[in-house]
Amino acid sequence: MRVFLLPVTLTAALMSVNTALASGDIEHFKGLPANSLEQALSNFVEYNKRLENILAGELTTETMTQVHELTYTLENALERIRQDSAELAETLEEVHLASERYDAEAVRKHGQDYLKVSSQLVH
Digits of tens for pLDDT over the chain (123 positions)? Predict the structure, then answer.
């Protein structure tokens, strides 16, 4: 079971996702899309493993290019995670406020919405 720690993920996501090298002689890639939180988390796990494997070996011109390319996919994933985490925090606030008002219907609705998204962070 893999657990994605929200604080760690949020910290990483809040770091600038625009840190790719801006040199004119380095080709830039789009990376894999992150059209959903599920896709973002899948790419995040897979591409972190790829990065870890590369870092475990010698950093050559070829592996540096591989790192450069894979960071685009990681940046896309982190941006999606950041966006969805911000929305998730807003949904949780709705649960909190509804509970203060003892609004059972709103607690149930917002609570289910929250759990639907937050459950994707824990596999």
Answer: 444 545 445 444 444 444 444 444 555 788 999 999 999 999 999 999 999 999 999 999 999 999 999 999 999 999 999 999 999 999 999 999 999 999 999 999 999 999 999 999 886
Identify whether the C-beta of residue 70 lies closer than 8 Å to the C-beta of residue 50. Answer: yes
The total domain count for the chain is 1
Residue 94 belongs to domain spanning: 35-121
Is the CB of residue 63 less than 8 Å from the CB of residue 57?
Answer: yes
**15 domain-assigned:** no
Instruction: Spell out the long-range contacts of 2-6 with Cβ–Cβ below 8 A and sequence spacing 24 or more.
Output: 2/45, 2/122, 2/123, 3/121, 3/122, 3/123, 4/41, 4/121, 4/122, 4/123, 6/85, 6/121
pTM of the predicted model as reported, rounded to 2 decimal places: 0.75
